[in-house]
Specification:
The complex is a heterodimer of chains A (288) and B (510). By secondary structure, chain A is mostly helical. Helix content of chain A is 72%, strand content 0%. Chain A is globular, with a radius of gyration of 24 Å. In chain B, α1 runs parallel beside α2, α2 runs antiparallel to α17 and α21 runs antiparallel to α22. The chains are: A mainly alpha (288), B alpha/beta (510).
């Protein structure tokens, strides 16, 4: 099939325009990457740098030699893996019964769930609950309070509802009970959904820092984001009124390296789950 | 081998300190526990672990186990507010702002120990604290806290020394001189990049919209620090005074003549420092000690051409600026403290419990304790050279293993019982200058006073004024417009604030 000139022109324009837009999204990443491998003296003079000038892994050596960052990175990875699995399990276990018409008090439960979407307890009551449950200074305090996202729960419920009821009925006739149906029939059908929300939960846990500063007493339990924030924050508060005497500001290249180290693990996961993304988000969201 | 010497040294230290303090505590009922949780803000990137040498030395010196909770400094107040509201406080903790509403109310409500008598009866505290600092941190005349004292006068006009020498201008002494320096720096190419692109002065907007340097420039012009005591012994906010308006006009002149960065309302002071470090600007209004901590990379870059170059060759500062109002030196004074230790009654129910933890803090504030939190452990963090402490050549180690614990210190900066430091000439000059300038310090007269309206809405109101100042400098508001902003401030609660502070001020005078 021959393409018309206009169509070709449009495509050229379209591709270059979209290419530019995506380049704009890429520029901060490129800048941080380049800045992290540039010697500090050159970085100081250049200020904004996109083409590498000089090469130095000094900052990487410095950061990776400090026990705090490597330790916090390990904590974050473990937290994210267990937290994501736990969150997914909790969400599925809540959403599946809720998707059944016959569940007793279903509308009441749904109402209570949706209610938490509009009104949240606030920092202090949440803190009291965490405290009373004895979770202060435990890793569980970072996962348990936010283990089910209401919004995700509703999407899960709608997706389960959208599955043909006949599948479940036939399984029941064959003698399957609910745990069996969920694990052997429903979950295999929901792989795109699970993959999508694994990323959503995972990114959420990976990026969270506030609950860690609130609930953890021992600093050796800190996830990487708290450490990153501390490094960046010290640097941005230079010259402000409330900064204390003698505070030593981490070098710019050190800040850049920390950012690179912090975003890399989560960036590595993205490509593998990305193909489920569009599929998973659309599913269950429209029907319902 | 090394460890053994360290522990031997510590045992001796311990013995040396226990003797005087056990004598002091005699006759009083003192209950020192084996363990105290203490919450302090974290100002370093790394957190020390329990096997940190300084931490262990602290435990040995105080004879208890200090369970330190480090909270990143930027979320410290939020964490503390939650802990106060849920009444789950550690045994001792730092409160960063003495006017914080939650803290003031909790103190008035009897949540914390009133330390007034305990400070007086303690030989250590009564000797180390000046009455002024205790007065400045008091609530309704009572001391609920042990302030962590700081140098009173740190501010200065800082500039590139090599640039000034190249310009042939004299050391600036007045705001007019400073204007000339700024104009000269902007008109010449001292950084040698072949372009006349130097920005004269960089200012920036702080967290509450106050301009970077606006805590310094008005005082150099002859205004007060935030509040001014007028001739008839009444208080008004400094932005209602003539010298303050002159400062704004001075800045506007820079702005109009293209000597001030046009994007000032959108950048932070950290960005400003970066621009000075990258030689885009040659001056800043800030703390003189900030020269020491912010330009290491610039110095390193410069040393590639000239290895003998020192920091004092490229930077200098003037803290003694003569103000046009009375031809005398005025320098901005700080509060004299940065946060203070408070003790919760819930954790320390009896007086004996309180005396126990106060004893721990007395040890921390003794000469040995001050040495430990300022210099670390001899042989590990510093060496003795002619009776002076010379830190070992590993700044990262010092930062993480000593600087972090400085947050535990009380009066080190002012009582200076610790060893003098074997520091370089420039650092010594900065320290000497800050000490010297304390006598010229203009301090905020409302520090020891309280105003309920100010606690409640003061920050919000100040924000509007700060916005108006920025607009004035950028030419969006004229003098009449600024007056409108002041009138609005007065109407929205400013009048009540002035009234309350004046009433408190008169009461304190009599």
């Amino acid at each position: 099939m021959k393409r018309s000139k206009a169509s070709l022109l449009f495509d050229i324009f379209n591709h270059s325009f979209l290419g530019l837009v995506s380049l704009m999204a890429m520029i901060p990443f490129i800048y941080i990457l380049i800045a992290s491998i540039t010697p500090p003296e050159i970085l100081l003079k250049e200020r904004f740098i996109l083409i590498p000038k000089g090469f130095s892994l000094e900052a990487y050596g410095y950061v990776l030699n400090t026990s705090t960052i490597t330790h916090a990175l390990l904590v974050s990875i473990c937290l994210t893996v267990t937290g994501t699995l736990f969150n997914l399990a909790m969400t599925v276990l809540f959403a599946y019964p809720l998707s059944h018409q016959g569940l007793y008090g279903r509308s009441m439960i749904t109402f209570m769930v949706v209610f938490t979407m509009m009104f949240s307890g606030g920092i202090l009551p949440t803190y009291m609950v965490v405290r009373q449950l004895g979770l202060i200074d435990t890793y569980a305090s970072l996962i348990l309070p936010g283990s089910i996202s209401t919004f995700n729960l509703i999407i899960f419920r709608n997706f389960f509802q959208s599955l043909p009821a006949e599948i479940e009925e036939s399984a029941k006739i064959d003698g399957a009970n609910y745990p069996f149906i969920l694990s052997r029939i429903i979950l295999p059908l929901s792989v795109p959904l699970l993959a999508t929300f694994a990323v959503m939960y995972g990114v959420g846990i990976w990026n969270s820092w506030f609950s860690a500063t609130l609930y953890l007493n021992s600093s050796d339990k800190w996830p990487i984001q708290v450490v990153l924030r501390q490094i960046i924050n010290l640097a941005t508060r230079v010259g402000s009124e409330d900064i204390d005497v003698g505070v030593v500001v981490p070098q710019q290249s050190v800040r850049m390296v920390t950012i690179i180290i912090t975003i890399t693990p989560i960036l590595l996961v993205y490509p593998f789950l990305q193909r489920y993304f569009t599929k998973g988000i659309l599913m269950g969201s429209i029907k319902g | 081998m090394k460890k053994r010497t360290v522990s031997l040294f510590l045992c001796l230290l311990l013995l040396a300190t226990l003797l005087p303090f056990s004598a002091l505590a005699e006759g009083e009922d003192v209950n020192v526990r084996d363990k105290y949780t203490i919450m302090i803000p974290l100002w370093t990137t790394e957190v020390p672990t329990e096997d940190s040498v300084t931490w262990q030395a602290l435990n040995e010196l105080t004879g208890t186990q200090l369970e330190l909770i480090f909270v990143p400094s930027d979320v410290y107040t939020e964490r503390l507010t939650v802990l106060m509201a849920s009444n789950q406080l550690p045994d001792a903790f730092v409160v960063l702002k003495n006017k914080d509403g939650t803290y003031v109310n909790a103190a008035r409500g009897g949540m914390f120990w009133d330390l007034t008598e305990f400070i007086q009866e303690s030989d250590v505290f009564s000797a180390n604290y000046s009455p002024l600092i205790l007065q400045n941190t008091a609530i309704d005349g009572r001391n609920y806290a042990l302030p962590r004292t700081r140098v009173l006068a740190r501010k200065a006009f800082c500039y590139r020394r090599d640039w000034l020498e190249a310009s042939g201008l004299p050391k600036p002494e007045t705001m007019e001189d400073i204007y000339n320096v700024i104009q000269n720096f902007a008109a010449n190419d001292y950084d040698g990049n072949g372009k006349i692109d130097t920005i004269g002065l960089i200012t920036a907007a702080g967290s509450n919209g106050s301009l970077w340097g606006m805590d310094i420039m008005p005082i150099y012009m002859g205004s007060g620090k935030d509040w001014v005591v007028q001739a008839e012994n009444t208080l008004i906010p400094s932005f209602m005074t003539e010298p303050y308006l002159n400062t704004m006009k001075w800045l506007k002149r820079l702005y109009d003549e293209n000597l001030l960065n046009k994007d000032f309302p959108t950048i932070s002071s950290a960005k400003g420092f970066e621009m000075v470090a990258s030689e885009m600007c040659g001056v800043f209004f800030g703390n003189s000690d900030e020269i020491l901590t912010n330009f290491g990379t610039l110095l390193k870059a410069k040393q590639q051409e000239n290895p003998d170059l020192k920091l004092e060759d490229i930077f200098d500062f003037t803290s003694a600026v003569i103000s046009p109002t009375d031809n005398a030196v005025h320098t901005p004074g700080g509060s004299g403290f940065n946060g203070m230790f408070v003790f919760a009654k819930a954790n320390l129910p009896t007086e004996a419990d309180l005396r126990g933890i106060l004893k721990v803090f007395e040890i921390i504030d003794s000469a040995e304790g001050q040495n430990l939190v300022n210099w670390g452990v001899e042989g590990v963090h510093y060496n003795l050279v002619d009776g002076k402490a010379l830190p070992v050549d590993d700044s990262t180690f010092i930062t993480n293993d000593v600087l972090t614990f400085q947050q535990l210190g009380l009066t080190g900066y002012t009582s200076q019982l610790y060893l003098p430091g074997d520091v370089d000439d420039f650092t010594a000059r900065v320290n000497a200058d800050q000490k010297e300038m304390a006598q010229y310090a203009v301090v905020n007269p409302v520090l020891p006073l309280s105003s309920d309206t100010d606690t409640e809405i003061g920050t919000m109101l100040t924000q509007n004024i700060n916005d108006a100042i920025a607009q004035f400098v950028a030419g969006q508001l004229d003098e009449a417009g600024f007056q409108v902003a002041i009138n609005q401030w007065l109407a929205e609660g400013g009048e009540a604030i002035i009234e309350e502070y004046n009433a408190a001020y008169q009461a304190a005078q009599n």
